[in-house]
Amino acid sequence: MARTRGLIAAAGTVAIAALALTACSSGNPLSSGSSSSAKSSSSTITIGSANFAEDEILAYIYADALSDAGVKTDVKPNIGARDAYIAALKDGSIDLVPEYTGNLLQYFDAKATAKSSNDVYDALHGAVPSGFEVLDQAPGQDADSYNVTKKFSDQNHVTSLSDLSKVKTPLKVGANPEFGTRPYGIPGLKSQYGVTATLVPISDGGGPNTQKALKDGQVQLADIYTTDPSIKSDGFVTLSDPKNMIVAQNIVPLISSAKASTKVKQVLNKVSAAITTDELIAINTKSSVDKESADQIAKDWVQQKGF
């Protein structure tokens, strides 16, 4: 494959510091007019990622699929948070990054009100600055979700957030402290679904402590990201959200328009079509449970899908 790894070892600290300074500059976060000696080669698509495993795997998936189609690629993983890799897109040191529709829309338009997958995606086209574009969104999402145990679901006939209004016993929700004020947290349950619940703050982002609290019955609901392997391994029931209280977070490629050739679009759109939430859970399981590398997970996935 015509893919090379981005250098992130000795130069990592310097590069991230430079990106952070760029991110602090005023004006449009993806406006043109800045230059960088680290710009991607005109014949190579340089793919960056945020600093967490799922996004890194997706970056390598994009790279493997493109290189198998004859496109030269380079990967610069683990750049940092959104401000850092948006700055890297701005200065041309990367050309492409896997993104999440809802968060990306709110980054570019803090007043955006779209919630559903289609509405968020439509709004995103108008929010992304000139010179950049989003390609097809994947059906798969990595979003907040309310989960209950199968026992609770069966006993109370609950499969949707709407069903919670029929539950007579007090409800406790295990989630990060900010869930107490977020529109899709405790306030949203009340205003959108007429459900009164008490927050049990657990600061691990839906991780092991939150999952244990749910399994042990300390809470009846838990905020767990939709691609967390525990949902399947522990048999949790993710409650549907018919009113789209939680903003959609579909996977989507954000790319420099200058690098978005017909071939590149065709390849990445085909990749996106295959990325379901179940596929995201599977690759995250390989990462967090099986401890496989992001590079290897991506290579196996692309070969399995026949890209």
UniProtKB/TrEMBL annotation:
Keyword Signal: yes
Assigned keywords, A-Z: Signal
Signal peptide residues on this chain, from the entry's feature table: 1-25
Domain ABC-type glycine betaine transport system substrate-binding: start-end pairs: 44-304
Name the record gives this protein: ABC transporter substrate-binding protein
Organism: Gryllotalpicola reticulitermitis
